[in-house]
Design goal:
- The chain has helices spanning 17-28, 37-75, 88-99, 135-139, 142-145, 170-176, 217-222, 228-234, 254-265, 274-277, 279-317, 319-327, 332-363, 365-379, 388-391, 402-428, 432-436; strands spanning 6-7, 11-12, 79-82, 104-118, 126-133, 148-151, 165-169, 183-195, 198-212, 223-227, 243-248, 270-273.
- The protein has 2 domains: 11-68 and 282-436, no CATH class; 86-268, no CATH class.
- It has 17 helices and 12 strands.
- The radius of gyration is 33 Å and the shape is elongated.
- The chain has a 6-stranded mixed β-barrel with strand order 4-5-10-7-9-8. It has a two-stranded antiparallel sheet with strand order 1-2.
Length: 439
């Protein structure tokens, strides 16, 4: 029997060697000797898996959110000043005044329009969102220039009226079976000729100069980049761009930047930003992230409840030991601390290994995804585990937020400690006489 280290009239000191040794002994106890090892193991793996899953899911959601926002803010501008109410001769001076605002990285004029994309190699068409942009501005889009999968943008904008070379996304190219050098026909009703039978659309065939793959399905499927002067002719804008696109140093600072831009404009302007344009999408991502965190934290709490079952069984099996310890001078507080430490140890080790495995999974998610895809492909050829047309991204992203990992670890530990309080309190209240009556 382990000897208690006592203080006169107070029992063992809190967290003394006696309590720690007794805790370790109960954790190692087998069921044949009155322990509850099977339930202990189940509780350990329950906490570990719940914490691991919570970290993996939140890391993937963080990575997905950051990846989408990076592509959104990289492929498009951050603030948009519409020129519909601005005289054509005032647009360039307006752009120069706006460019002088502190925090603005660059400005450019854009013509934007929608068109129907047609190809002789496909039976149906597709929606094309056409951006008329200067060649120098296109080459400054790192999110596009670094994602060119075939072709080149060196000849973009070269030729009469900007030439007839365009840049399209990989999903649109795959849908039509197109490669660099093939032709793509665009139809636009904007500025079309009126006839007795309706509007006759503008139709023109362009040559594909490059194909990009940003990794976001909506952009890769619909975005088409066209030289600004050519877009002016195609959409019949008469030399007037649709808006001035503004890029700022910090995309999330656009609400604070808009009043500064209005003051610098010196005239009434209609202004918008990327957050306003994508408000519902960004809000949906945030709500989904918050709800998923709450749901998975409940899973961690449910896993921690298994510790109660283990402690109840342990208290029942160790009733004789508790009675003997109480008669030897162990205080109620000492007994309670021992069983709390038993449950806390399960939670601490389960949380620790859950954090380690979750972080490692998030760090190596790409090779894990490739391996799982290989397994699925081996047993079911042609099966796509992560279809970019469905999920929006070509790869499953993950980003470990260490602040969030710390919160998850603390929650797992606190949940493990809190669920031990009641059964530990019941153990400390056990009457030693009743515990030893039938022994």
């Amino acid at each position: 029997m382990i000897k208690a280290i006592k203080q006169p009239g107070k029992g063992a000191m809190p967290l003394s060697l006696f309590e720690r040794r007794l805790t370790a002994r109960y954790l190692r106890a087998k069921r044949s000797t009155g322990g509850a090892s099977l339930i202990t193991i189940i509780s350990f793996f329950g906490i570990m898996l719940a914490v691991m899953v919570l970290i993996i899911v939140m890391s993937v959601m963080n990575g997905y959110r950051d990846k989408i926002i990076d592509i959104m803010t990289g492929a498009q501008g951050h603030i948009f000043v519409y020129t519909s109410s601005v005289e054509i001769e005032e647009i360039e001076p307006l752009r120069k005044r706006i460019s002088k605002v502190s925090g603005i990285r660059g400005t450019r004029t854009i013509i934007f329009g929608s068109a129907a994309a047609l190809s002789p190699l496909a039976n149906d068409g597709a929606l094309a969102l056409v951006f008329g942009i200067e060649p120098e501005a296109l080459k400054s889009l790192d999110v596009l220039t670094t994602k060119i999968t075939s072709g080149s943008i060196d000849n973009f904008g070269v030729g009469r009226n900007g030439g007839d070379e365009i840049v399209i996304g990989s999903i649109m190219a795959r849908k039509f079976g197109l490669m660099v050098g093939d032709d793509l026909t665009l139809l636009s009703f904007s500025g079309g000729t009126m006839t007795p039978f309706g509007t006759r659309p503008i139709r023109k065939t362009y040559r594909i100069g490059a194909i990009f793959k940003m990794g976001f399905a909506d952009f890769d499927q619909h975005f088409v980049y066209m030289p600004l002067s050519q877009a002016n002719l195609f959409f019949k804008r008469n030399g007037k761009p649709d808006f001035i696109e503004i890029r700022v140093d910090e995309p999330f600072s656009t609400p604070e930047m808009k009043p500064l831009i209005r003051n610098a404009a010196g005239m009434p302007i209609l202004i918008d930003d990327w957050l306003d344009k994508n408000r519902s999408f960004v809000s949906a991502l945030q709500i989904e992230r918050t709800m998923m965190r709450m749901i998975l934290m409940l899973v961690v709490l449910i896993a921690a409840l298994n510790i109660i079952s283990g402690l109840v069984m342990l208290v029942k099996n160790k009733g004789k030991d508790i009675g003997i310890l109480r008669t030897m001078g162990a205080s109620q507080g000492s007994i309670m601390r021992v069983f709390i430490m038993v449950g806390a140890a399960i939670g601490i080790f389960g949380t620790f290994f859950g954090v380690v495995l979750g972080v490692l999974f998030a760090w190596f998610i790409e090779p894990i995804q490739d391996f799982v895809q290989w397994v699925f492909g081996f047993f079911s050829p042609g099966t796509m585990l992560f279809d970019e047309d469905v999920y929006g991204l070509a790869r499953l992203p993950a980003m470990v937020d260490w602040n969030e990992v710390l919160v998850i670890a603390l929650f797992g530990f606190l949940a493990s400690v809190l669920v031990t309080i009641y059964p530990s309190w019941r153990a400390s209240k056990m009457d030693p006489v009743e515990a030893l009556r039938y022994e």
